[in-house]
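Problem 12. The chain below contains 467 residues. Write out its predicted structure in token notation.
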Amino acid sequence: MSFNPKLCRNESEVESKLIVQYLLPALGYDPSKWHQEVALGSIRLDFLAMLSPVFPSINDSSPKTCVVMEAKHPKQNLNFHVRRLKRYLTKLQVMYGVLTNGKDFRIYELVSDEIDLVFQCEGSEITDKIKKISDIIGRNKLAGLVVKSIPLTALTAPIDIKSPIFENSTLPIPESLQAGIMKTIAIYHNKGGVGKTTTTINLAAAISRKGFRVLIIDLDSQANTTYAAGLMKFDTEEEDNLKDSNVYNIIFYPKSNYIHDVALKGSFTYPEVDVIPAHINLIWQENSLIDQESSKFQLVKKLQLVKDDYDVVLIDTPPSLNLYARIALIACDYLIIPSDLKPFANEGLRNVRNFIEQIDDFRSFTNRSSIKILGVLPSKILTNANYIKATLPKQEKIIEDRYGFPVFETRIFQREDLSRAIDNFVIESDRQIPDPKSIFDFKPDSMSAAEFEELANEVLEKIGLRS
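Solution.
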């Protein structure tokens, strides 16, 4: 049996045709020795191959003779996923990791707190080099290594392995990795044009690519995020399929129009992300909500009903201090403040600070804890080398010293690729159809994609989803 990378057109086919049908059998792992879609708290593995159904003792500090296998879409650049694989191997103390998109095949080995690339070949070379691959991660090779194991019945806090083959199997994991809860993040600044939509869309795509379930909620009547998510593909008012089902319905109707009733699948990224759309009518509909006191809490209540369905919720907000902004900040757990660090954006941070204090006072009466501020995100930053070296660090320090906000380490620079991705379109007959994409789907090898990958890593670590 051989492997043909041309048969892999998506991530699912990389999993089935390369890993399941070819690689695992060729390496000597029968179906009782590997598991698919393994969930270990915040860590989610595509595949875990072991010598037996028993996971080595978590108290043993030596690397465990297992193999983590991660499959990516053939168009994905594997360089963007090495950091995540490193986290998996170091946190679980697993000896080997495989990273592949069908076209590129890599094996990494855990060495202390780092991982080393010990083998790499093209997908077309896998069949010819399978013996060399087996000499590194084959079952017979790993069986020669001594490991300490404990019976599954001795585990004090086992975590289910979600596997189509062994649904009742369990693995132990450290307490720090165990189940998290849905995290809701508002993306807010009261000044427009600072990159809220760009941040929302591309951060959602980056987090989704890491295996987390993501929901976007657009609370801005400008509906820029709704457009960027690929949900506005109509030309006329008669074709408008959003006016009667959008975020207003969730806020206005207490006993109907729940999240799953209104959510649509955004076409801007793969894997797909659920999106609650906004609409231009939110402008005049705000008056009817102001008179309805319960409208401030409807989003909180309806999000609570789907807390087991999503890992991360991102709320895009209007650049104002209006009711929709209040609803977003009442509902969120965390706050990201994008800013281009220019004078008006900086001065607006005083308004943001005062607004947060007002919302926190209100939250205290409803037994909700204060908003956790993740930081000001430098966004739409100039790429001029002298500016980056001399001026940018001073501007970031002003944010901390003068306004009292932490600043993200990640910086999102102003690059043409980001605007081109959102402005992407296709031609059908004589029509120009909007076809916006995330930066990962538009130009995955770009600097902007790398920046948003770093942002996702930083955000997930701050909210406790990167153990």
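Discussion. The domain at 183-462 is CATH 3.40.50.300 (Rossmann fold). Students who got a different answer should revisit the alignment rule from Section 12.3.
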